[in-house]
Amino acid sequence: MTAPLFITLEGIDGSGKSTQARLLAQALRDAGVAVTLTREPGGSPGAEAIRALLLTGDTGRWSPETEILLFFAARRDHLERVIRPALVAGQVVICDRFTDSTRMYQGATRGDLRGKVDALHDLMIGTDPDLTLIIDMDPALALARGLARAGAEQRFEDMGLPFQQKVRAGYLELARAEPARCTVIDGARPEADVAADIAGRVLARLDQ
Ligand code: ADP
Ligand code: TYD
What we know:
Elements: E1 5-10, H1 17-30, E2 35-39, H2 45-55, H3 64-88, E3 92-96, H4 99-108, H5 114-125, E4 131-136, H6 139-149, H7 161-177, E5 182-186, H8 191-207
Helix pairs in contact: 1-8, 2-3, 3-4, 3-5, 4-5, 4-7
């Protein structure tokens, strides 16, 4: 039995978040920890339906403001139906992206909407991660990894390299502003090295 812990993974597209979320969940389960592994946008049936609206279609499909509201609608459903119940049950929740993604992708890169994102988070979400792992790497390398996957869900990847560079800078700034919550992880290493680094940090945190 461990105390509930809410962990989020953040970083630019293709930095290895999904891979590392999966490997962390496996490492914790191997250590006997009850884990809920989930992701945003999505993670619950309603939020997955909203995900399809957000991640497909033209880059200009939604205004930044509409996009923020859709992300928060999805997040609220995910929080109510998946994240909160798992934390109440004493589990470790590993979530691939959360509000920091909205802060970076909508709040900082597409007009100065950060204040609105923070206000909506406080009003409608109000739950913050205990630990945020920011997987950091050169956007050119990450974008090449991401585009190699080439699926339909690449509206944000289609926004290009300068956009991803802004997102990366935003994440590094966030890590400086919130050092108690955020840890920067070098994502340009082999998968197993990144995974060992992350598992070591999280297991140490669970032992505290
Ligand atoms: P994200 O969720 O951040 O977009 P993924 O975990 O989906 O990233 O990884 C993007 C792509 O890069 C995938 O094809 C994955 O297999 C590959 N990948 C992930 N981590 C590494 C790594 N450390 N080194 C090389 N390739 C990686
Ligand atoms: P994700 O599936 O994690 O993509 P990737 O594996 O490429 O990192 O997220 C999909 C996209 O949604 C990603 O480009 C980032 C974007 N996004 C936002 O713009 N705002 C948000 O609040 C979230 C959660 C994601």
